[in-house]
Amino acid sequence: MPVWADDDEWGGFVWRPIMDWPVADVIAIHHRHGVPVNPLYKAGFNRVGCWPCIYAAKEDIRLMAAHDPARIDHIEAFELEIEAERARRNEERPGRYAHKIASFFLDRSARQGSDGVHIRDVVAWSRTSRGGKQLPLLQPPPAGGCMKWGLCGGDEDK
Predict the structure, then answer these.
(1) C-alpha to C-alpha distance for 154 and 157, rounded to whole angstroms
(2) What letter would DSSP give residue 6?
(3) How do the domains of the chain map onto residue ranges?
(4) What is the pTM of this model?
(5) CA 87, CA 96: separation in Å to the nearest integer?
């Protein structure tokens, strides 16, 4: 995205002043103004704006399941609730919803018209090695978040 943009929708300008900043500068401005860095970054997460982000990497899903299993339970309950509502609405008007599975996680086949993927299946996939079929002997340590940006250990809380 550009730092400056015209927004035709509402007739104003959009300014993204730190869009091009390196991560080190973003962390430095946090420290300078006493703003703590989101603790999820320190736990190894790369995307923390939504929990989980629909663009979350495999590692972020694995970390979320490990650090916040209640969140997985919440997402699963929400999926089941939405699926029940879809079924009810399809009884009123058959064919209203083509997909039985209510999830914001999609696989390649889902983009081509099949169902999405339940959160428990996504978590199981997140624990696999590359290729999505084999479990690694040892789970690798997080490579993102604090590891990626040099926030682990030290005086990042100051």
Answers:
(1) 8
(2) E
(3) 20-149
(4) 0.66
(5) 9
Structural tokens at position 125: 């996939």
pLDDT at 157: 46
CA terminus-to-terminus distance, the chain: 32
In whole angstroms, how far apart are CA 91 and each of 87, 94, 95, 103, 113?
A: 6, 6, 9, 20, 21
| C-alpha distance from residue 71 to each of 52, 54, 120, 127 (Å) | 9, 14, 11, 17
pLDDT(47) > 50: yes
Lookup: tokens for 119:
């959160």
Highest mean pLDDT among 24-28, 74-78, 126-130, 150-154: 74-78
Q: What is the pLDDT of residues 53-85, one digit of tens each?
A: 777 888 888 889 998 999 999 999 999 998 899
